[in-house]
Amino acid sequence: MVLMEQVLFNLFDNAAKYAPQGSRITVTARHEHDSVILRVLDEGEGIPEADLERIFDKFFRVRRSTGSVPAPG
User: Fold this and answer.
1) What is the CA radius of gyration of the chain?
2) Sign of dihedral through CA atoms 66, 43, 36, 49?
3) Nearby residues of 64 by Cβ (< 8 Å), 6 or more positions away
4) Residue in 72, 60, 64 with CA at minimum distance from that of residue 19
5) What is the DSSP string of 37-63?
6) Of the candidates 50, 44, 36, which has an alpha carbon nearest to the alpha carbon of residue 4?
7) For residues 55 and 47, is the Cβ–Cβ distance under 8 A?
8) Nearest-CA neighbor of 48 among 18, 11, 3?
9) Residue 15 host element (H or E)
10) What is the mean pLDDT of each run of 10 residues along the chain (73 residues)?
11) Fewest CB within a 10 Å sphere: which of 14, 26, 34, 60?
């Protein structure tokens, strides 16, 4: 359960960190078969297709189009 809490924290934290200030973050959940489908939508730039396969690599960060990356924390 602790790991799931960390996953959710990171997901929501990243949505808030990378979405434009004042934009909306929408969270929905639904039960499907034996699973829960959780969806988090923000109004950020998204992840470039070229970076998709690396997003779960330890310490990997996607560069913003502005060239800046938010500070950790």
Assistant:
1) 14
2) negative
3) 18, 45
4) 64
5) EEEEE-SS----GGGGGGTTSTT--PP
6) 36
7) yes
8) 18
9) helix 2-18
10) 89 88 94 94 88 88 64 53
11) 34
Unique residue bearing structure tokens 């923000």: 42
Question: For the chain, how far is it from start to end, CA to CA, in angstroms?
Answer: 22
Question: In the block, which residue shows the tokens 């359960």?
Answer: 1
Query: Percent helix, strand and coil across the chain, each rounded to 5?
Result: 30, 20, 50
Return the H-helix or E-strand segment holding 31: strand 26-32
What SS3 class is residue 38?
Answer: strand
The residues near 39 (Cβ < 8 Å, ≥ 6 apart) are 26, 27, 28, 29
